[in-house]
Amino acid sequence: MNPIDMPATIVQATTTEDLLLAVHSIAQGPLAQRAQAIDEGAYPEDLLKQLASLGAMGAHIDRPGQPGDYMATIAAMAEVGKVCGATAFMMWCQSVCALYMDASDNPALKGERLTAHLAGKGLGGTGLSNPMKSFAQIETFLLKATPTDGGYLVNGTLPWVSNLAGDHYFGAIASVVGEASKEVMFILKCDAPGVTLKGCPKFSGMEGTGTYAVQCKDLFIGAEDIVADPARPFIRNIRAAFVMLQCGIAAGIIQGAIDSMWAVEDQLGHVNQFLDDRPDQLQAELDDLLARVAELAKTPYDNSNEFFIDVLNARIDGGELCLRAANSALMHQGARGYLMQSPVQRRVREAQFVAIVTPAIKHLRKEVAALCSEDMPA
To answer: What residue spans in the chain does CATH classification 2.40.110.10 cover?
Structure first.
């Protein structure tokens, strides 16, 4: 059977080609039918579990006899992002949660627990928006951890955490009370005593991403849920992989925008030729960007500043190209692309999300400037 015709319940794909064909089948089938509903608030838990069962959010993780392939995960994310940027974003959430568990030195997060996550039996997110901004001196830590017997008691509220539901979990970081410049990273379970999920204000898009405010009141975190203590050395080791994976979201939205431009070329090419950012030009830029990302993906755990700057610049270029491509697609499609239920109009809002989601373009540029200053000779 051709992988593109395989049912959504397929077991994990054995090659990257099989994986992408199977992901394509889901993306162009049930996901395409539900993309509008997801944009309006329907959380696609079943589709995320089906994608996970293929290995679409775990291809970057080493397995016995099968080394991790970051580009395979990025490509799977992009295949979905062509159809629905919100679902691609949730794939990133699930993928980086796997990264946290796999990169941790805590054996309690590996084995059956990691295997279940990779298979989609458990779904998780990433609560590092506030911590990443805090490490960059943009915000202060919103979660506080007080040492106690056997672990920590955590208090505070994170305002935006995605890919969540009542039985989900995510990676979080809290500053340790009484210890300057020390933080602890852990897996926070949404159904743990002391945790409350609260709905967020209505967004202009990406409503179906399972995004909540997470309130913690005397939440106990034990040794089995600790990802890293202290957190900062761990974050340095995974920071490039964390950011690099987001390029899959951008690539998918860009490609979807380009495809929608070609879709009207026969009808409107005679006038669209006078627009800037034509589809062939944008395709060439996307291909160049993906070639850069593919090279970076060979060494995702390189923690040098030079490598991280290259990753940050790739992510900046992806965000900016996303905005240009989505806007140009709207210009190419004209009034039909301005209809509220048009995928082209939705993609404009998805592109704006890529530009502002942590790390936002302004955050990325701030990090590049800071790292370049560190590397400058005195």
So the answer is: 125-228
